[in-house]
Amino acid sequence: MTCTVAKAQTIQGKIVDETTGEAIPFVSIGIVGTNISTVTNDAGEFILKGLNLPAKLRYSHVSYLLLENEINAANNLFVKLKPAAINLKTVVVDPYRGQRLVKAALEKATQFQKESFHGNAFYRQLTSINGKPSQIYELFYDLEFNVSKVKGWLAKQSRFAELNEGVSFSMSNQSYLTFALAGYLFEDRKSGKFVTLKSLKDFEITIEKYIEQKEQDIAVVSCKYKGSKKHFYINSTYYIGVEDTNVYRLENSIFNLPMTINVTSKIPPAGTTIATFNGAKTDIPILESISSKLYLNLNIRGRALNPVISSMLTVFQLDKNLKTQKFTELNRKVQDKAIIESIAYQPDFWKDNPIVKQTALEDSFIKMMESKSAFGTMIDP
To answer: For 205, which of 6, 82, 99, 250 could close a Cys bridge (C-beta 3.0–4.6 Å)?
Structure first.
């Protein structure tokens, strides 16, 4: 009798457009037959841990044809995806179809609003001032979420580093904003103009194009606010399956974000978010990733500062057993810094443990801070 023990492998790779060679962000990569998955970063790069080879990987993106392949070695992967065909001919045939699709998608999601999901997540936030990275923190936590929002979290590991160059800027609750502004129901929000079942008449809703996929076409539907542009509002673009009316991707452009800033701000804060949902073989799309960028224009003691706060959340594994945990409610009062300070920094955990592959900018900043021995819980080198 022969016994073979399969050792869990870690693979990394990059995904590009077959035609242009350009990197593709937000590609979902999953291990077929498991709940383990990740998404590519802005540079099209990814890392997957816990593979027992051989394994079959599944690559999906709403704008590209689905690809599955079996890998037998944990070498660096270079994957090319073929763009899906774009159909513009049928866009103007029915001018009200876009509104009906958004309405149907929101109505369908509302039916599942009381259903909670649980998973392991990784979050990275990078703050740059005038184009130069100044602060980074990373968190591993468990999440409880539904179709409209993240309900609670439970932080497990964290690390933080910040440059000390006289001027600093920090967002105390960027993670809350990331979650709050990337949902697709927004029904419980008290202020602002955004797409809901009650506000469809306030938006100009247009199907921009159809992406032709094997199982069904994906309608790309833009929703632009028609009212006053002086107040907080969000323009959204939904990627909706024309047959199952699932939301597969949501892009938000956020204007006049209501924030209290204790310095002069000539231009109201603005931001963007991209949320992706894993809706394959399910009645409801389940949150997969959220990327956000917040832009500010500040004036501090006569010096112009332009902070950009970028964040990336990935739910890399769903786990029903996590529902027995006691989660902390996520609201605007939650302070990221306080959460980070409450967790002892464990260097061994972070060594060679990047669940989400860093971009070149993040990687260079992390290596620089590591060279300064700067990482730790709230260490300021």
So the answer is: 99
Tokens matching residue 201: 């008449």
What tens digit of pLDDT does each residue of 230-275 get? 888 999 999 999 999 999 999 999 888 776 655 555 566 788 989 8
Rounded to whole angstroms, how far apart are CA atoms 257 and 324?
35
Helix, coil or strand: residue 362:
helix
- Is the Cβ–Cβ distance between 59 and 81 less than 8 Å? yes
Average pLDDT over residues 67-83: 86
Q: Phi, psi (5° rounding) for residue 320? A: -65, -25
Strand partners, 45: 14
| Cα–Cα distance for residue pair 195/223, rounded to 1 Å | 7
Q: How far apart are CA 68 and CA 79, in angstroms?
A: 10
Residues in the chain: 381
Q: How far apart are CA 44 and CA 21, in angstroms?
A: 11
The residue ranking higher by pLDDT, 255 or 297, is 255
The rounded distance, in Å, linking the Cα atoms of 77 and 235 is 36
Q: Any alpha helices (H) in 221-302, and if so which ranges?
A: none
- Calpha distance 278→232 (Å, rounded): 29
CA distances for 46 relative to 22, 28, 84, 193, angstroms? 15, 9, 22, 35
Position 81 scores a pLDDT of: 95
Distance of alpha carbon 127 from alpha carbon 304, whole angstroms:
16
Say if pTM beats, i.e. exceeds, 0.90: no
Could you give the CA distance from residue 253 to residue 294 in angstroms, rounded to a whole number?
10
Contact 270, 254 (CB under 8 A): yes
Euclidean distance between CA atoms 255 and 180, whole angstroms: 15
Among 80-89, 317-326, 368-377, the range scoring the smallest mean pLDDT is: 368-377
Question: In Å, what is the CA distance from 121 to each residue of 140, 157, 196, 304, 356?
Answer: 6, 11, 27, 35, 10
Residue 354 confidence class, pLDDT cut points 50, 70, 90: low
Tell me whether strands 77-81 and 9-17 are parallel, antiparallel or unpaired.
parallel
Q: Any bridge partners for residue 251, and if so which? A: 237, 274
